Prior knowledge:
About 70% of the residues lie in helices and about 5% in strands. The chain is built from nine helices and two strands. It has helices at about 5-20, 25-30, 30-35, 40-65, 75-85, 95-100, 105-115, 140-160, 165-195, and strands at about 120-125, 135.
Amino acid sequence: xxxxxxxxxxxxxxxxxEAGERGGRSARxxxxxxxxxxxxxxxxxxxxxxxxxxxxxxxxINRVAGFRGSRLGMLDRSAYILLVSLEDxxxxxxxxxxxxxxxxxxxxxxxxxxxxxxxxxxxxxxDGGMARKFTLTQEGERSLAQxxxxxxxxxSTVLSDWSPEEISQFAAALTRFNRAVQSLATRIDRTNNxx
Length: 195
């Protein structure tokens, strides 16, 4: 048996044990979410593989995309996420929280640091609202474009031996997956806020 098979067996055993020991977590899930959390055995192995590969993807994409820190002229991942979020329109802390899933105190610290680096600036709400909003500065736009070029170059290299059809299918599946994750996160946040 290969190391990969051993890893998969261990992960499958862990997933099976966790399914039997859900307890408090299971009580928080709706009936639909519970049935989705207990997939048929034929699907469980693929779900374990997706969980593991998503874990690795998060770690590895940071390495190949060049998120190494400002000393190398590269953005850290959290700064990049905020700049991308602000790319199309100014947003308040509350709006950024909805998009990123981060709490207001974390966003206040991150936006303060980015303001000190002249990446973003606070402006009055262009629509006349009370909350002040954040928008990109020229330095923020330049840094975003530079990091995006690194990211897209790294991804192009990774996908260089994929067919256009494979890339299209992967993009569609990944988009669908991320939207499903966001939808579940939103439902969980609403449930927690209702308590």
